[in-house]
Amino acid sequence: MVSIQNWMRCSPAWIFFCFCCLPLLLLALPMPPKGAGIAPAGHSCRLRKISFQQSYIRNRTYSLAKLARLSDQDTDNRLIGQQLYINVQETNRCYVMKRVIEIIVDEVLLSVPRNRYPYIHEVAQFLAALSTELRGCKFSGHREHVEKNLEEMKDKIKQLGVSGKNKAIGELDLLFDYMENACTEAPKRIVTSKGGNKKKN
Q1: Which residues, 6+ apart, have CB-to-CB distance to 139 below 8 Å?
Q2: Which DSSP symbol is given to 192?
Q3: Model pLDDT for residues 104-146, shown as the tens digit of each residue
Q4: Which residue in 109, 148, 150 sits closest to 126, CA to CA?
Q5: Nearest-10 crossing angle of helices 93-107, 172-183
Q6: Closest CA to 183 of 99, 57, 65, 81
Q7: Cα separations (Å) of 197 from 46, 59, 123, 174?
Q8: Rounded to whole angstroms, how far apart are CA atoms 91 and 45?
């Protein structure tokens, strides 16, 4: 009985504390730094270097590209090149190459008869695996320029028809190298004759 009476005397004070003082104390607590606990934007846009150092799949990719180029008479158009990076920051290049891989695999490699090109199924699986590894890679900033560059590449493939798909396969070695350069630890650099560092495009 005494304890209940004591609680009744104390309860108004507790009510006042809970509704008036406690919120002020919570607001006074320091806020965690913005972005704390969140991985950096570019953290998911990285692939392991070893993925590109496997001689088996590298040789398969280069051999497939070389075979396709034998029947490529179009020397005026280029699908994989620096035009994909126009108005795109270097930190977003891996995202661009991820999107290129998705287009090449879905719209080219998977639509070509396997008996026409050797190794095409293996190369498609390898590229699809890289795309899966990069599923968390997001673009930072405005994507208008990226979408424009990718649409131009897709339109070019469609306009060229069968020749466009053949050209895309003939540039798989370029895609392999661009992907490695954009998505591994750091962009490759070339040492100039003056001893300075020059970025490799």
Answers
A1: 92, 95, 146
A2: -
A3: 999 999 998 878 888 899 999 999 999 999 999 998 888 888 9
A4: 109
A5: 150
A6: 99
A7: 22, 30, 33, 23
A8: 9
Q: How much is the pLDDT for 163?
A: 92
Query: Rounded to an integer, what distance in angstroms lies between the CA atom of residue 195 and that of residue 164?
Result: 41
Residue 185 has a pLDDT of 66
DSSP one-letter string for 155-179 = HHHHHHTHHHHHHHHHTHHHHHHHH
Indicate the SS3 state at residue 190: strand
Structure tokens at 111: 């639509």
Query: Do 168 and 79 contact (CB within 8 A), yes or no?
Result: yes
Considering the entire predicted model, what is its pTM?
A: 0.70
10, with CB counted inside 10 A (0-12, 13-18, 19+), is exposed
Residue for token pair 């050209």: 167
- In degrees, rounded to 5, the angle at the alpha carbon of residue 66 between the alpha carbons of residues 65 and 72 is 85
**Other beta carbons within 10 Å of 182:** 24
